[in-house]
Amino acid sequence: MNDPAPAPAGKVIPVVPVVEDALYEVRKRIYPRSVSGAFATWRWILVWFTQILFYGLCWLDWNGRQAVLFHLVERKFYIFGWVFWPQDVFFLALILIISAFALFLFTAVAGRLWCGYACPQTVYTEIFMWIEEKIEGDRSKRMKLDEQPMSARKFRIKATKQFAWIAFALWTGFTFVGYFTPVRELTQSIASWSLGPWETFWIFFYGFATYGNAGYMREQVCKYMCPYARFQGVMFDPDTLIITYDAERGDPRGARNKKLDYKSAGLGDCVDCGICVQVCPTGIDIRKGLQYECIGCAACIDACDQVMDKMNYPKGLIRYSTEHAIKEHWGKKEIIAHLMRPRTFIYTGILGIVVAGFIYGLTTRIPLRVDVIRDRASLAREVEDGKIENVFRLQVMNTAEETRRFALGVSGLSGIELGSDAVVEVPAATTKGVVVRVLAPGDAGKTGSNPIFFEIKAINHEEVFVREKTTFLLP
Fold this sequence. Notes:
alpha+beta
């Protein structure tokens, strides 16, 4: 490469400044402004509903035990009248499939409703911001307080907020662990300072996660950590309900006097007050169009509608709508009609099938499981009367919440019979191992393995019946 020609003598070459772009964006602290309105009311309804459910359900009793308990030590999941065992993982798989397709369906129809109203990150951030506002004041007061140098007053206010945050986070961690260790036992352990190591770890770990995510990281979790924000775009289409700014109606923006004939002045309905940005928990400007940071909380709709009321303008400058509806000027009927499209029909159909299968599986679930294990110590031996004996171990799981007696039977070979007790009693929601001797004539089948069946039936509950296949060895 040739060197550049030297500058003529006496001529000054301007120096072009080198601009360096930061590899990572520096976070700007967001101070969301509180807002009231229809959508804010719905958000708080969901906050109250989810938290009453979460903090109260673990204290509810059912049949003398905790109503909802995922007892890891006993390896049993209690959900009201149902008792699930590790063998019931099929139901967990169905629940995960239902959750996934429900999320797909809701997103295709109405965007990020889950994020805006029921996601734990949104719910706990809302609670932590409420605590912060009650202690530090509204948006302007919080901003002024953070700009002030540290003083006794500032330290007292900040310390009070931190104490409230930490107390709430630890209560949340305690409640979370209360679903895996009986909550009353957990309370007694804390009161007697005898809490186990894993309970201690998870209370503090979950509490720390709640404190960090809802108190400090907030919108960073939604923007950078949550995968849903990244792949939501593939589930949106021009007929998906999203929060939209009507640029045709709102632009050109500009401040104006309430009495001004703004249309003759060439202005749109947007007064450029910026309140829609101030109330946004992720700090975006919805007027720039759909952005992945938008969690669909609709705070900007409530804020804009209040401004429109004050200016005596029609509401709905920012509203739930679709790209097609904004472009084609559709009304509610056209929007609803286009929500029912092939994508939503497919999601609804798959979701309906899986839900129906889940309900059918629960309603037809037999509260009895039996595992048949051959005794490896003695595969087959000849006993009295020339009969051949095989020994089996039966693991009888009574998943009902009452003690039951089960009648044992065997079939599959001519003359086959039980050589031990034919009735076994199993306490409620427990497993009992039973050693069973099975006898058969030496000529009852072919040499080697022969298929037989164990039949276990609950006495006084004929509908509770299990038939398990195994093999009988003849020498």
